[in-house]
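Sequence, please.
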C-alpha cells in the first residue's frame, strides 16, 4: 500500500558515451526525463532529419502490417492479448538488427504490391461497370460510336418504362414530323433501350422531342460493336483477375516476415523515443546533461551499469511541495486491482495509495452482489484456466482476469453462505426428475427468505466501509503532521456518527425495520447523546476555522454539519448489495422454474437443458456486469469520496514501449 519512491537525478556524461548510456537507461526502464532549463551555453542538437526518417520507417512498418492483416487474417483483440507479445532470443535480435535495411525494403515492397492490388481492384470494378452498362445494347449490330453515313446517323438512347414501336412513332409523327426509324434493342421493367435511324440534320430535333420524356444517352461509350467490346473487356477482366490472384499469393509469401516486421515497428518506435530525448539534451562539444526522476530502488543497479563510463550523478530527494511522477507498488493480490485505482486517478506522490485496502473491500462487496456458488466456481475455473494456459498474456488483460479470479472466489464463498447453486437448481432437478427433494442448506441464511436481514448487514458493511474511508483520511492528515485537522475534521465526525448509531440502534423505528431490538446500558446511551451534541457543536464552530469572519465561519460550519444527510445517503447506497444479491437468486430461480415446466419427460429434459444453458448464461453475464459496475461505484463515490483526492502524475519512463514484442536487449542506433 505505497507509492514507489523516486528521486530527482541530474546526470552528466561524455558525449562519446552518450549512446551507450542512453541504451542502459532505456533498457532499465526506470528513468523519466524532465526538461532542463533553457540556456545558451549548452545548446541542443536538432534530430529532425533522423526523426523524420524513423517516423516514415515506422509508418511503412505499420502500413505493411495492416496490409498483411487485410489479406491474411491474424489473431487480434482478445486472442492476441491472451497470447501476449512475441519473444526473441538475443541471437535473433542481433540478426534482426543486422537486417534492418532488408526489412525496410520488404515494407516498401508490400506497400507497392498493395498499391498495384488496389489499382487492379479498381480496374475490375470499372470493367464490371462497363459490362453492366453495355449488356442492354448487345443486340445492336452497329458500333455504338460513329454509327453514321454521309446523310444518316444512328442515335442511341434509353427511355423510362416500357415503350412499343407504335408509341415511338406516335411521338415522332407529332407536329414537325421527324423522319426516323426507331429500333428497340432491349427492354426491362424500368427502361427501354432504343436505336433511332434518322437523317443527320434531324438529330437535334429528335433529342429535343424525347428529352422531356426522359431520354438519356447510353451509360457506356465505345467504338466497337457492343458484343465485340464485351468479349474484349471479359478477356481484360480475366487477365487482371489472374494478376490479382498472383498478388494475393505474394502477400501470403510475405507472411513469413510478419514477426520480423512487428519487431521492426517496435524497434523504430524505441529509436524515435531515444532520438526525441537526444534532441532535448543540453550538450557541449564533449559532454551532455540529463535530468529527471529515477526509481529509488533502481539507483544502485544503475550505478553498477554506468560504472565503466565517466559520469557524474547528482541525486536529490523529492521536496514536500513537489509533485513527482507516481508508480504504485503492491503485493501480488492487490496489484490485480491497480487498474481500478488508475481508472479513477492516481494518488499524489505524497498521498496514500488506497489499492490494498480497497482491493479487500472490492472482492468482499463483489461476491456479495453476485452471491451464487456455481457462478463463482465458473468464474474461478475460467479465469484460472486462462491464467495457467496463457502465461505471456498482456499485463493489463492479466490484471483484469486476476481481478475476476479473486472476485470469483468471493462469489463462491458468499454463494455457499447463502445456499445459492444456480439458484435452487438442485432442489428443482431432484423434485422434478427424481421425485424427491434434495437441498443444500445455506451455511448462514437464505436472502430470499429473510431479505431484511441481508439489508441490515448490507448497511453494516456500508458503515464499516465508510468509516474505513474516514479513518484513512485521519491517518493521512496525521502522516502529514496536521494533527489539529485530524481531530477537528475527522475525530469530531467519528464521535458524531458513532453517537448517532448508538442512539439509532435501540430506537423503535430501527427495531420495526430490522425486526430485532438492541438494548444498550444507560451510560452508553447518554454517552452517545452528549457525544453527538458536543461533536456537532465542534463541527459547527470549527469546520470553517480558516475564515477570520465569524459569520462566514459559522455558515461554513452549518454547511459542513448539513453533510450528515450525505452520510445517510451514502449508507443507503449500500442497499444495492441487497438488490443485486436478490436479483441473481430470483432470476436463477425463475430460469429453473421455466426449465421444469414440462416435467419428467424426454421433452422436459430437453427443454430444461436448453433453458438452463441460455437462462443461466444470460443471468451470469448481466449480474456479472452489474456487480462490476456497482462495486466500482461504491469504491469511487462512497469510499474514495471520504478521503481520496487523486491527481497524481503517472510515471512515464524512458524505455522500450513495445506493441508487439517483449522489450529486451539493445536496439542499436
Amino acid at each position: 500500500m505505497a507509492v514507489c519512491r523516486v528521486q530527482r537525478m541530474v546526470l552528466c556524461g561524455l558525449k562519446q558515451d552518450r549512446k551507450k548510456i542512453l541504451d542502459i537507461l532505456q533498457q532499465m526502464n526506470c528513468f523519466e526525463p524532465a526538461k532542463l532549463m533553457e540556456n545558451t551555453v549548452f545548446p541542443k542538437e536538432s534530430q529532425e532529419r533522423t526523426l523524420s526518417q524513423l517516423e516514415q520507417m515506422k509508418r511503412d512498418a505499420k502500413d505493411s502490417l495492416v496490409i498483411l492483416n487485410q489479406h491474411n487474417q491474424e489473431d487480434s483483440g482478445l486472442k492476441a492479448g491472451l497470447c501476449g507479445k512475441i519473444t526473441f532470443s538475443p541471437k535473433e535480435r542481433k540478426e534482426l538488427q543486422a537486417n534492418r535495411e532488408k526489412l525496410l525494403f520488404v515494407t516498401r515492397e508490400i506497400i507497392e504490391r498493395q498499391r498495384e492490388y488496389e489499382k487492379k481492384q479498381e480496374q475490375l470494378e470499372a470493367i464490371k461497370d462497363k459490362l453492366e452498362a453495355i449488356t442492354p445494347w448487345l443486340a445492336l449490330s452497329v458500333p455504338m460510336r460513329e454509327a453514321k453515313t454521309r446523310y444518316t446517323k444512328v442515335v442511341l438512347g434509353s427511355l423510362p418504362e416500357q415503350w412499343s414501336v407504335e408509341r415511338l412513332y406516335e411521338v415522332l409523327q407529332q407536329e414537325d414530323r421527324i423522319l426516323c426509324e426507331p429500333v428497340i434493342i432491349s427492354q426491362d421493367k424500368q427502361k427501354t433501350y432504343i436505336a433511332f435511324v434518322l437523317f443527320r440534320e434531324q438529330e437535334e430535333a429528335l433529342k429535343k422531342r424525347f428529352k422531356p420524356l426522359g431520354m438519356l444517352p447510353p451509360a457506356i461509350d465505345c467504338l466497337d460493336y457492343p458484343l465485340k467490346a464485351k468479349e474484349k473487356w471479359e478477356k481484360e477482366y480475366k487477365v487482371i483477375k489472374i494478376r490479382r490472384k498472383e498478388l494475393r499469393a505474394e502477400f501470403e509469401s510475405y507472411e513469413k516476415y510478419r514477426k520480423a516486421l512487428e519487431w521492426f515497428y517496435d524497434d523504430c518506435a524505441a529509436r524515435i523515443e531515444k532520438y526525441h530525448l537526444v534532441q532535448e539534451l543540453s550538450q557541449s562539444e564533449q559532454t551532455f546533461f540529463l535530468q529527471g526522476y529515477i526509481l529509488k530502488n533502481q539507483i544502485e543497479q544503475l550505478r553498477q551499469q554506468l560504472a565503466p563510463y565517466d559520469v557524474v550523478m547528482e541525486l536529490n530527494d523529492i521536496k514536500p511541495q513537489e509533485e513527482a511522477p507516481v508508480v504504485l507498488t503492491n503485493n501480488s493480490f492487490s496489484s490485480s486491482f491497480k487498474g481500478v485505482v488508475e481508472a479513477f486517478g492516481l494518488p499524489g506522490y505524497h498521498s496514500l495509495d488506497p489499492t490494498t485496502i480497497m482491493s479487500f473491500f472490492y472482492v468482499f462487496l463483489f461476491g456479495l452482489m453476485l452471491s451464487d456458488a456455481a457462478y463463482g466456481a465458473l468464474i474461478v475455473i475460467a479465469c484460472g484456466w486462462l491464467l495457467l494456459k496463457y502465461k505471456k498474456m498482456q499485463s493489463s488483460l492479466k490484471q483484469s482476469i486476476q481481478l475476476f479470479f479473486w472476485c470469483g472466489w468471493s462469489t463462491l464463498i458468499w454463494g455457499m453462505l447463502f445456499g445459492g447453486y444456480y439458484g435452487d437448481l438442485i432442489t428443482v432437478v431432484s423434485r422434478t426428475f427424481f421425485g424427491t427433494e434434495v437441498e443444500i442448506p445455506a451455511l448462514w441464511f437464505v436472502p430470499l427468505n429473510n431479505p431484511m436481514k441481508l439489508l441490515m448487514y448490507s448497511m453494516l458493511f456500508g458503515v464499516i466501509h465508510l468509516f474505513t474511508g474516514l479513518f484513512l483520511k485521519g491517518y493521512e492528515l496525521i502522516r502529514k503532521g496536521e494533527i489539529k485537522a485530524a481531530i477537528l475534521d475527522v475525530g469530531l465526525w467519528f464521535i458524531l456518527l458513532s453517537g448517532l448509531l448508538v442512539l439509532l440502534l435501540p430506537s423503535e423505528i430501527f427495531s420495526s425495520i430490522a425486526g430485532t431490538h438492541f438494548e444498550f446500558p444507560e451510560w452508553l446511551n447518554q454517552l452517545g447523546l452528549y457525544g453527538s451534541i458536543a461533536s456537532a457543536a465542534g463541527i459547527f464552530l470549527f469546520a470553517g476555522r480558516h475564515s477570520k469572519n465569524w459569520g462566514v465561519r459559522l455558515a461554513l460550519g452549518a454547511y459542513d454539519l448539513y453533510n450528515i444527510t450525505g452520510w445517510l445517503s451514502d449508507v443507503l447506497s449500500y442497499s444495492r448489495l441487497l438488490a443485486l444479491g436478490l436479483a441473481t437468486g430470483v432470476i436463477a430461480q425463475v430460469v429453473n422454474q421455466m426449465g421444469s415446466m414440462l416435467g419428467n419427460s424426454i421433452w422436459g429434459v430437453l427443454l430444461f437443458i436448453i433453458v438452463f444453458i441460455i437462462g443461466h448464461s444470460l443471468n451470469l453475464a448481466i449480474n456479472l456486469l452489474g456487480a462490476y459496475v456497482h462495486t466500482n461505484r461504491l469504491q469511487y463515490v462512497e469510499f474514495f469520496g471520504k478521503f481520496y483526492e487523486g491527481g497524481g502524475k503517472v510515471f512515464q519512463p524512458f524505455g522500450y514501449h513495445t506493441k508487439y514484442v517483449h522489450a529486451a536487449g539493445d536496439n542499436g542506433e
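The chain has a mean pLDDT of 90.
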